[in-house]
Amino acid sequence: MPAYFTGCHGGGNKLAKQKLKQLSKHVRYLPADHETDRPVLGAVIGNDYTLIVDAGNSPAHAELFLNELKEIKAPESRLLVLTHWHWDHIFGMKKMNLPAIAHTKTKKYIEKLKGLQWTDEALDERVRTGVEIEFCAEMIKKEFGERRNEIEIVSPVITFENSLAIDLGGVRVRLQHVGGDHADDSIVVFVEKDKVLFLGDCYTQNMYAKKWNYTAPVFLKLLDELEHFQAAVYLHSHCDPATQAEFFQELFEMRITTKAAVENKGNREAIHSAMKEGLGRELNDDDLELASYLG
Ligand SMILES: [Zn+2]
């Protein structure tokens, strides 16, 4: 898998097309596919409406998801919500053909993408000038191949600032803006009844920087906010679902690493030894990668 997210496992699938899976009573999801960086797509199913979480990284990705949805019993009346503005979550919007709900910043950022060219030359030039990152440019080329004219940027229709409640008929969903280093427009999608939290990519590192990084105070505040949901299942867009116990263990380890990095700023050896002590074990590659993003 790409060095996309430390501590994230599963989701890769080279040979077979992903299939829709049931996560809880009212939630299905199409797992991530690392081959072309396709994120998780979700369906929250109420009595009256189906809420789709993220639009996919291409028309083909959206189509795969919509075809899978046909196979299950779910209301035809649909809503679409976007977790953040990154290409892999929005390039399937045209195919979804639904008015999208998003944070106000998400709309602003998506509108900035309008008018951009997506040819190899244009992508390479944006990578050269630091506007685009190499990883995304590569994945866009791989997902779309020659069919770059299929990239059509669509604006969200409904926007909100802090939070928004959606009643799907017997199933309430809360959209909450959380921000974070990865994308400051990031929201999470909480399915209250099922205690499922769609995380988007919110606690991934900032990848739009010369050196991928986290800002310690921003990162710690985000981790606290995510913990408050007390969800039963946490679903990051590029990972397999995690139970509360698994996610809280991850939170614990991320906090230990952040604290070690802050208290021993710039001293790699001291950071690593504080981490070892805090974690009570030897460090693995994921630990070292996370520490490197913190300074
Ligand atoms: Zn992202």
List the helices and strands and how they pair.
Elements: E1 21-24, E2 27-30, E3 41-45, E4 50-53, H1 59-70, E5 78-81, H2 87-90, H3 93-96, E6 100-103, H4 104-113, H5 120-128, H6 134-144, E7 158-160, E8 163-167, E9 172-177, E10 187-191, E11 196-200, H7 216-228, E12 233-236, E13 242-243, H8 244-263, H9 268-279, H10 285-293
Parallel strand pairs: 4-5, 5-6, 6-7, 11-12
Antiparallel strand pairs: 1-2, 2-3, 3-4, 8-9, 9-10, 10-11, 12-13
Helix pairs in contact: 7-8, 8-9
The structure holds zinc ion (ZN).
Features:
MBL fold metallo-hydrolase, 6-stranded mixed beta sheet, hydrolase, globular, single chain, hydrolase activity, binds zinc ion, Metallo-beta-lactamase, Chain A, 295 residues, 7-stranded mixed beta sheet, alpha/beta, RibonucZ/Hydroxyglut_hydro, NDM-1-like
Structural write-up:
- This protein has helices at residues 59-70, 87-90, 93-96, 104-113, 120-128, 134-144, 216-228, 244-263, 268-279, 285-293; strands at residues 21-24, 27-30, 41-45, 50-53, 78-81, 100-103, 158-160, 163-167, 172-177, 187-191, 196-200, 233-236, 242-243.
- With 295 residues, the protein is an alpha/beta fold.
- Strands 1-2-3-4-5-6-7 form a 7-stranded mixed β-sheet.
- Strand 12 (233-236) and strand 13 form a beta hairpin.
- The site of zinc ion (ZN) has 5 residues, from loops.
- This is MBL fold metallo-hydrolase.
- Keywords: Hydrolase.
- GO terms for molecular function: hydrolase activity.
- It holds the Pfam family Lactamase_B.
